[in-house]
Amino acid sequence: MWWRPGLLAVIVALAAAPAAASTFTLVTSAFLDGGSMPRTDAASANACGGRNLSPPLHFAGYPANTRSFGIVLFDTDAAHGHGFTHWVAYGIAPSIATLPPGFGAGGAPAFIGGTNDAGTTLYFGPCPPHGDPAHHYVFTAYALDLAPARLPAGLTRSAFLHAVARHTLAEAQITGRYSR
User: Fold this and answer.
1) 75 near 128, Cβ under 8 Å?
2) What is the pTM of this model?
3) pLDDT tens, 62-73?
């Protein structure tokens, strides 16, 4: 049967494609995945107890053709389960695969700030209500095929996700928990 070797090659190639993308990881030295975030990461406003410093983050295993990174921080437990966007940043050059502590407070030229639910274009740290169980803060990194300056400033989380839907080469996540 002449078609089977060719068909087998296509099946093997398709099966291998997701595995290559799954090597993209997002790590931090500030907390373990699913662990408690340090107080310094919390917001400094409204007696949240922190210094509003984004944690150090490192992108690893991203596709070779990555032209920029984006990152979204989303509290899945806020607003009675509707969530709260704490940070939208994009246009991060691949040469900046390690984001130092406090990177999210810097803004341009390091990244283009999207608009979070606090109405700012910078990192807004965790600040769950007093007495709530620990909230889950999901950091999602996006390896993109877009040039760093391709997207306009101020995109909301949903506008950013829509804009990168066809340009995302890989995604990686890490989740931190915080309560006060």
Assistant:
1) yes
2) 0.86
3) 999 999 999 999
